[in-house]
Task: structure prediction
Amino acid sequence: MAVAPPPSPAPRILYVDDDVALGRLVARDLERNGFAVTSATDAAKAMELLRASEFDLVVLDHYMPGQDGLDTLAQIQSEIPVAPPVVYLTGSQESRVAVAALKAGAADYMIKSAEGDFLDLLRTAIHQAIEQTTLRRERAAARIAIEAANRRLETLVERQAVLLREMNHRIANSLALVGSLVRLQMSAISDGAARSALADTQHRLAAIMQVHRRLYTSADVEKTDLSAYLRGLLAELERSLSGTGGHHRLSLETVPVVLATDRVVPVGVIVTELVTNALKYAYPDGHGPGEIRIRLRRAESCDDLVLSVEDDGVGLGDDEAAAGTGLGRRVIEAMAVSLEARIEIDNGHRGTRITLTFPP
Result:
């Protein structure tokens, strides 16, 4: 069996008027229609009641002994922390007073009368004033709740950003440590092929480490400046290869590009593979130092990005694949798939030019 909800409490009305007879008439009518009415005949008594109890609305007459309604309205608004709405009573020829009351903050006004439809109109004015006040307070409470929720969300986002930066810092440090261990392992190995494989691993680690270095110093962990990343990556490669004896020059031409961070890593790995391949094979012994150029631009006919790595060296042999051979080729192909990229080789270039085209 369903249990009926408890009845809502009757709205509490404070009726302030020195006309005692009219006050009784109004109180009886309002109580018959579901209101709880308390009466006062002057401002002092009204203020005493308002300080002692909470009311949903005040009906306030203009003419009262000692202090008129306008002064009492101002006192209510200045002294009562949560002032109830006020319906102001004026005489039939006092439109100026009614306008002054509305400007002073009254919710509505009524022409005071003991005849006609005064009581019906007063009940309607009371209902409307209470509803409007309730709506305003609910909107204010909702706005405060939203602002508090937004502050909590901002705090959470800031905390997560700090944690992400710390995480990226630790990842970068861990990758640097792994790179150092690889370097130590290289120094303990005499086999040239094994040393070359470990060097390639070290370069791949550098490509990933560069991303995490930039993330823990950036305010935006979701996007990365690809141009700045490539400059840092090439500087890292030049430092790591400075002792190999090649002394080849790396140059970068780029346009400003901001890319989602999860797409920067595969771009960096591909560039690392292509540059290290060029450093190892483009200029063999006796050919002398040369230049390796990395260019990043936007496609002319669409929004795609075009990244090329080229040299003026000996070129690719007839039996070599477009993206190199062995593990390096498989790494490049896997990274290209993740980027939805296509790889092309320019057979008309005097050395080697490999181009990667991919959506941003």
